[in-house]
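Q:
My hope is that you can spare some time for a protein that puzzles me. I hope you can help me see how the letters and the tokens relate. Thank you; the sequence and its tokens follow:
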Amino acid sequence: MRKHTLLLSLSLGLVLSGCQQPAEKPTAEAEDFKTYSAEEFYRTTSVFGSSINHDQTAVLVSSDESGIFNAYKVALDGSGKEALTHSTDESIFVNSWFPNDDRILYNADQGGNELDHVYVREEDGRVTDLTPGEDLKASFAGWHENDRQFYITSNERNPKFFDLYRYQVDDYSREMIYQNDSGYQLGDISPDGRWLALSKTNSNADSDIYLVDLNDSDAEPQLIAGDAPEDVAHRIYTFTPDSQQLIYGSNANSEFNQAMAYDLADASHNVSYTADWDVSFTYFSEDGQYRVTGINQDAQTVLDIVNTETGEALNIPNLPAGDLRGVNFSDDSSTLVFYLNSDTSPSNLYTYTPGDNSATRLTSTGNPDINEDHLVAGEVRRFESFDGLEIPGILYKPKQAAYEQVPALIFIHGGPGGQSRFGYSALTQHLVNNGYAIFKINNRGSSGYGKTFFHLDDKKHGDHDLKDVVYNKKYLQSLEWVDADKIGVMGGSYGGYLTMAAMAFTDEFEVGINIFGVTNWVRTLKSIPPYWEAFKKSLYDELGDPETDEERLYNISPVFFGHQVKNPVLVVQGANDPRVLQVESDEMVEAIRSAGTHVEYLLFDDEGHGFSKKENRIQASQKYLEFLDEFLR
């Protein structure tokens, strides 16, 4: 039983702004929509997970309907759901049912510290921590095809590296089957339990793939992909169900990642799947009857589901508009489940039997009091930056823009190297519904647009990518329905950093909202968690080594230039954040405040690097709107 759960994210030239004519007076039809509160937008349910149980009667999901993520059993016949956990403090993130009963495996950390443990919940509700101990991080790594064993990775032996353990289903006894002393990142395990795929990061543009024979205790990892003289990035996707091939990604012959197949018998490499965009993932149903491939096509994932026996695509008829996510099959491929998501509707879980006329929806995650016609779908837009480079993004135009000029926000994703993508966001819809245009920029350095674009910001952070943000403002000013004098910037994590950089190093933006953002690169890069060791070099290649690049890192760190911030800022921080330490935001706020500029600070004692609790999301979203209404509108 090898379950795959995916947690699953037009060209316009730059026209410089000129004089703008007043917008026409509103019409009754234009005003025929309703605005909603943050609480109403978050009166939705976030749900994920797609493991189908042994008798094909239920799906295992995590849902935050109680206000925090817990595990639920959702009946495949549509008869309802049952809460399996009742946590009020820590979010529960499900992994899988057991192969032959209704025990479950799940992960949880402590207050957002990202030190996950793996737990088993027995059928009678008892819970056992399978990875006890302090200061360790563990994760579920899959099932053996014999259904009697499963795998967990843990850094309990050495905080820097993850080892692989094999657990027994009956008594949870375990043995270490791979000791990782060389800094590999552990990848997929073949269904028969013999092969472990490993990756090794050489730089942020070059990585190799190795295989190790777990049946030979003395075996050393063997390089199978990565001996090219030029930089090539490789990524591990999956083994085929018969354990005869490893499917992996490579950008050796393209700007984009393509899927390759390595044959374990004859060591040959062949093209498995190509596209004009990145192949993000590929995997198989357990019996091998179906193959699912995801293509990252202009900020949304397009799925290709193919019957491997006939070569025919699986098309699910009569679906509402939206993108498929998290596809998973039952053991015999007779049933599949998936999520459907759109900008105006949160993910809902569906089940489908191939050959039927339609799928069955199993969840209702939206707020029934919100009319989806009052919400806004994004559109891909592009603009030219300072050097002529075309920068993509997603533009959300408020309904209010039909009859008046509206303020606008540039929203910057995390990373660096992340990507803004289509999909429902209560935060986005709340602000857009209340009259704020949002442009989700995919500045240079974002993933999904080719390896050249991805590396254009290497060691140019706070410079070239920041200029993209400034030129995004110029593009917004060229839109007649945007108020050219009322443009702000906001973002989370790395996007929070660029927000603070925009406020400290330019005078372009009227307000900034920094959500969990880095402000001191010297400290951040010196204090990264030990379990990031395997890709630390890649991080340093992109951002800089704090031992050798300290001066440049200092000069791009907003915390040292808070006195240059001239316009209002809102800073949001989680007290348990292991990536952006609270002291960074404390110091950033004090630096701005000491110069006499207005700054507000929203600190959550029970969050880490992001939000896990619905009440905190509501509080933050309401604060964003209040802050913007006061200082931008």
Q: What stands out?
A: The chain is about 15% helix and 35% strand.
